[in-house]
Each structure stands twice: as structure tokens, then as C-alpha cells.
Amino acid sequence: MSFKEKVIYQIYPKSFLDTNQDGVGDLQGIKNKIPYLKQLGVDMLWLNPIYPSPQKDNGYDVADYTAIHPMFGTMKDFDELVDIAKSNGIDLMLDMVFNHVSTEHEWFQKALAGEKKYQDYFILRDEPTDWLSKFGGNAWAPFGETGRYYLHLFEQTQADLNWRNPAVREELFDVLRFWMNKGVKGFRFDVINLIGKDEVLKNCSENDGKPAYTDRAIVHDYIKMMNQASFGDDKDIITVGEMSSTTPENCILYTSPDREELTMTFNFHHLKVDYQDGKKWTKMPFDFAALKETFHDFGTKMSDKNGWNALFWNNHDQPRALNRFVDAKNYRVAGAKMLASAIHLNRGTPYIYMGEEIGMLDPNFDSMTQYADVETANAYQELLDLGKSEEKAFEIVKSKARDNSRTPMQWDDTEFSGFTEGTPWLALGKSSKEINVAKELSEGSIFNYYQRLIQLRKEYPVIARGSYEAFLPEHPQIYGYIRRFEDRSLLVVNNFYSQKTSIELPEEFQQGEVLIANYDNCLLGEKINLEPYQSIAIYC
Ligand code: TEU
Ligand code: CA
């Protein structure tokens, strides 16, 4: 089976299942739930970082790339997880954070202690540029007492690595080979389009400095080198690059098979449609026209030029899509299925973020003390500094905080929802009594719907391999597309609103077959009516 038929499930290990009651999820917890994941039908598990780390950014501040953080378990646990998963037809994808390391990593410590060799591992300058850190403030911090500065595009304790140095590249390629030898079959590369920095770094007032270090031409060379030095030898390995503020043109270059870079890319344009003036820390209803434009733009360009998208609504950095794009209070179930259809029938490889398959919601916290994420704390402070009231700042933060998706997985309706019997590291969502796996499996229908979507991708080549074209791009409520493969076609229409609507059905689909829909009794004809959040896929 190729990556086109597969579906990947993302696990945030800290919040999946705690088996030693210390309040933090662990590898044993993932092992225990392999039967559940097999039942769902997913092919690969992407785990967020599980390496030793001071956890300033929940593991994205790596202190050792080839070991396991003791809070998650041991290397033996990891090896067992690989085996158990594999014997159930599931592979593992690890998160490779190669743009930066924790300042506690031995490379940074040796650099600080004066070792020239390791100083060349980092980006040190006498004068900082005006670039802003993605977590607030200037992107440079004093490098010890040297009078120089090191670059940190993210948190201060995440020091950017100097990819211009061949020794750095070799170290990182070794890391990939280490995990490949352990049977790992997938790699997710964190902010990989930021690794290529120019030799001379220049001020850049536009967009917080992003153009100065994003998607530079050299990044493609580095990725190709990485491919040739490691995973390029194993055609079963799946790679996905997380692309910050990228373009379809670059994503085509990153993923065209003949260029031998990556299998697919994540981009975030569709999840910025509720950013006012492009700023994350604002609160705004989503802009449906913008959402469709980005889907159609990436969809058609990647289809025409043989690129490949990673398809997703949720991840560990995003509030739950149900809270952003659906009136979840009234239409949670229909809305969850509609969102699922919109990406699972699309061109690309779908990702499911833990809890999505049971329709989990944002936790609905009521106080800042419930949030753990460093980005949220910084953003809240910045909003106050800008003169916002505490209530207003909290309202904004609540709509965008990354912890919204990081709360513990809701397994059952017990006090800590079966996640732990200890004290969970992050509070549970308020709806855990009503929305949990036990309840979903006994009386819900979202999980089954996901199961069916996953199977359909494996059964119908038009889903895995078809081309992509926009359908009714101007319709005020419908996001639709047509997929075509050989002589078969699939039309997918999704009503993104709680108002009913209708469309005229193109003739070729009027006699078609309904492949999957989230309402019963869909009558096909010249015209079809769509209920609130209705989704329907017609095959002919
Ligand atoms: O995220 C990169 C990234 O740019 C974001 O999605 C980021 O969280 C957001 O822009 C902040 O507003 C990746 C990881 O997914 C994230 O968890 C890490 O914190 C980050 O890289 C640094 O490693
Ligand atoms: Ca634990």
C-alpha cells in the first residue's frame, strides 16, 4: 500500500494514556491502545517528541535526539511499541525537530563553555537582526557572557542550528539512521522550511522577519541531502515536512517525486482564516471564502504539478476544528462528520488528531492558570501590554491556545476520564463526561464514520489517486470538489453552515451512487437539498 491509501493518526504522548499514574501519558499507554487504533483502521502513528527534554516547549526543545524521556518510559518500551504496532499492521512516525535544540543539549552547553567546534553548530552574531521570535519578543538572546547573540526563532531555550555547517548535517542524518534501524517508518520534520539561513543575515521588517529565513532556496538542497543520506534508500518510509508560512509552489518542489525531497507537506493557510489581519492572537469568525480559496489553490496546483498534501484539521498546535468551523453546540456530530469527509475524500494523505474521531471539543477552561503552554502565557502578557482588559485578553487566548487540543484523551466518564488515576498534567476538557471513547463506541456514530472513510480510501482508487478540481467555488455555503481517476469520478459537497441550502447536480452525477453521507436518505436528482452541515459524496 502506498502513502496515498494510508491514514495517519497523531498521538500527543503526554495526553494519550497514563499507565503509572504520574499524570503524564506514556509509551506503555500507547501500547495498551493499539487494539483501539487498529479498530479505527489507521496505518501509522505520528508521535510528538518523546526525547529527553526540559519540556519548555513540551518536547520541541530536544536535549538528546536518540534517547527516550524517562517520563515516557524506556528504549525497551519504545522497541516493544514498534513491534506490537507492526504486528497489528501499524507503523510509527517520529517527530524530528531539526531546526533547533534545547539550550540544555550538550552541543549548546559545549558551545557555551567555549568549544569552537560546537559554537559553529549555532547561529551566533555580534549584532541581532530585527526578526521576532514566534513565541514573542526579539529572536536573539545573549550568548553567555561573550557579547554575542544566538538565534532562537522559537522560545529562548530553543537555539537554531547552523545547517550551513556540514558537521551539523551529518549529526542529524545520523539521528535519522538511528531511528530507521529501530524500525521507524515515518518522519515528521518540524518547521523544516526554516532550516536554511543565509550567510549574511539581514533586517527584515516585513511580517516579523519571516521572508528572511522561510523557504530559502537552500532548504531544498538540505532536504535533498537528508533524503540521500537516510530515508531515500527505503521507499516505504513516509516523510512529512511541517512548512511554516509556505507557498503552493514550494510545496510542489518539496514533494514532487522526481526531486527526491519529501513525501508530503503540512501547510497552515486553511487554519489562518480566523486570524484578523493575519494575526493569530485575535478573535474572529472564520472567513469561508478564504478557507475555500486556500483549499482550491493548494488542491489544484498540487494536483496539476504532482505534489502531495498532508490533509488535516487538527493538531497539537491548534484549537479543535469543531470549535472553529462548526456550531458545535447544536451540530457537533453532523459537523464532525462533515469536516472529516471534507479532508478524507480529498487529494492527499489524511491525518487524524487523537480525539477527533470521537468529536472532542476544546476544554472550555475558565482561567489562565489552567493553561500550561509557554506560547499562551507570553501571548496573554503581550495582549495586556497592548492595553487589552484581562477579560478581553482571556477571551482571545481561549480561542487560540494550543492547549485546547493538548488536554487528556477522553476514554470514559470517570473522574479523569480513564486517562489517569493520578493528577493529570493538564486539566481535562469540561465535556469529558458526555464525549468519551466508551460512550462513542457504544452509542455514537462519529468513530464509525471515520472507520468507513479510512476503508473507502483503500477501496476506491479515485479517492487515493484521483485529480482535484474545484466545484462551485463561488457558492456561499458549499465547499465542493471533484476527483477523477481513469473513468471514475467522485463529487464531494460539504455544507459549512447551519442553514439549509441546495445545489444543481451536474448531469454525470445524477445517476451516481452515494458513497458516504452524514444524513440518511439522500435523494439524487437535478437538484439536491443539503441539511445543516450535510456532507455527501457521489460516485459515478
Ligand atoms: O510548530 C511550528 C509553528 O510555527 C506553529 O504551528 C506554532 O506552534 C505556531 O505558529 C505558534 O503560533 C512546530 C511545533 O508543531 C510546535 O509545537 C513547536 O512549538 C514549534 O514547531 C517549535 O518547535
Ligand atoms: Ca505516566
Automatic annotation (TrEMBL):
Residues 10-406 form the Glycosyl hydrolase family 13 catalytic domain. Belongs to the glycosyl hydrolase 13 family. NCBIfam families: PRK10933.1 (NF008183), trehalose_treC (TIGR02403). It is an enzyme of class 3 (hydrolase). Keywords: Glycosidase, Hydrolase, Transferase. SMART domains: Aamy. Pfam families: Alpha-amylase, SusG_C. This is Alpha,alpha-phosphotrehalase. It comes from Enterococcus hulanensis. Its EC number is 3.2.1.93. The lineage of its organism: Bacteria, Bacillati, Bacillota, Bacilli, Lactobacillales. One of its GO terms (molecular function) is transferase activity.
